[in-house]
Amino acid sequence: MILIMKVSWIKYEKDNKSFSLPEKLGFDVFKLQNLEQTDDKIEELIENRYNTIILSNEVASFSESIIKKYSKNENINIIIYNTNMPELLLSLKFWHIFFVFDRY
After folding, report:
1. Which of 35, 34, 29 is closest to 16 using CA atoms?
2. DSSP H helical segments within 1-104, as ranges?
3. Residue 46 in contact with residue 8, Cβ under 8 Å?
4. CA angle, corner 90, sides to 21 and 16, nearest 5?
5. 86-98: pLDDT as tens digits
6. Residues 8, 28 contacting (CB under 8 angstroms)
């Protein structure tokens, strides 16, 4: 069984701390100029077949759709990144997901 995982990160453009490692590695890190655009960006990413979307705390707080539209959708994974958690820990958990899926 092959699982394809298309991952993106969304953060506020003035946030210089969140997702710096994925950004340096060339992953899809999207920066919002206006936090009110959060739901529109999530919808756009889902239309572009992203199935895992990681949001910074700040961005997630501006979304109405996370719970209303996507909480029961098994095909969409929305992860809220806690800015108090060290980024290395997030990246280790993230890579663990890739290695687990790669084995099957």
Report:
1. 29
2. 20-24, 38-47, 57-60, 65-68, 87-102
3. no
4. 40
5. 554 444 444 444 4
6. yes
pTM, two decimal places: 0.76
Tokens read off for 23: 């950004």
Quick one: which of 76, 85, 37 has its CA closest to 57? 85
Q: Kindly tell me the sign of the dihedral angle through the C-alpha atoms of 66, 67, 70, 74.
A: positive
Distance CA 61, CA 35 (A): 9
Residue with tokens 């979304």: 63
The 10s digit of each residue's pLDDT in 4-19 is 778 899 999 999 888 8
The residue whose two tokens read 């340096």 is 24
